[in-house]
Amino acid sequence: MQPSWAPVDVRERLGLLDATRAAALLGIFVVNLEWFNRPWEAFGTGARPDLAGADAAVAWAVQVFVAGKAWVLFSLLFGIGFALMQARAERAGRDFAAAYRRRAWSLLAIGLAHGVLLWPGDVLRSYALAALLMLGLRDWPPRLQRDLGLALYLGIAGLSVAMTGLALIGDGGRGPWQEPAAAAVSERVYATGGYLQVTAQRARDLLRMMVGDIGLVPMALGTFLVGSWLLRSGRIAEPGRHLRYHRRMAWVAMPVGLGGCAAIALAFGTGGAQAGGEGRWLFAASLQQFAALPAALGILSALSLLWLRPAGARALSAIAPAGRMALTHYLLQSLLASTLFYGYGFALWGRLGPAALLALALATFALQVLVSRWWLACYRFGPAEWLWRWATYGRRPPLRVRGRVD
User: Fold this and answer.
1) Which of 34, 54, 125, 246 could form an S-S bond across to 355 if both were Cys, CB 3.0 to 4.6 Å?
2) Is residue 16 part of a domain?
């Protein structure tokens, strides 16, 4: 008999991945909250210019230690998940490509719905498109996947640095490159509009954001490939056998990446106003994205080393349930934030500074961890994960935990 081909059982899950996914989820929410309070026409201009005190300090710390790194870390985990699913399909003798296509197309549908109905800054659509491209590279040797992945990510980041650098030379970095009038209209709609008005604005912003997929999808594909190599090389499944690699990443790559981002922030500031122009800030932001990959790889290795210690494993296991429900919580975070900040909800648009937004993110995440522990005591998956697996495998997976009755 062939082994079963179904969603992975909780006993087969890698706890390190769930904990890392939870940490990345928190980082993404910390970054995203700012963009629930600013028009998308301001995207790329960095931190607001009117910050002081604790707000300025938090904005600086988020820009240096979180922005860009959480996205890359989550992308690495997506690639690791791809390789895990492929390995399970091969052991079961099943058609991996067909199931993964369904997985990617359903994720694209979720991402587009999320972008229109809740938040246009959705990244799921980019992941889905990159996942479809990943299928064509699934049988490449691990090292070749790694090399192509690094070439894609660093190549796109390097091209961005070159283009913004040339633009900087051309106009002196003054700008503005944005559209102040359009930003004012967008801000008014989000701050005071009803649900239909805001949804129409979200749809317009989503179309604008999708233009950026030209660069984002190849970068996501690159990180997926690096993540696949990490799993297939044993560095994630058996971190204890690759201590030299993880120590090098944690003690060299992470400080270099984060230190580089800090140096760039000190040199240019955290936004267009501090940098002396939007062009100068775009150049600085491109440099920071270049440094985000070694920083994220170092963070992943640091967590892997922490996982090998009993106390560290206990600490990471405490947040791991949230990682098992990452898709559900990602959507719930958008539902919460859009309700709090947009005009059809509590209309708190622009009223909270970075320090208050950070406190909101931490409190929300703590609540999500508690809810996850309660939910997973009764159910095998989060609601969104359950529907996503149903679409992937073509049949409804059991939801209730065995031994419990409805």
Assistant:
1) 54
2) yes
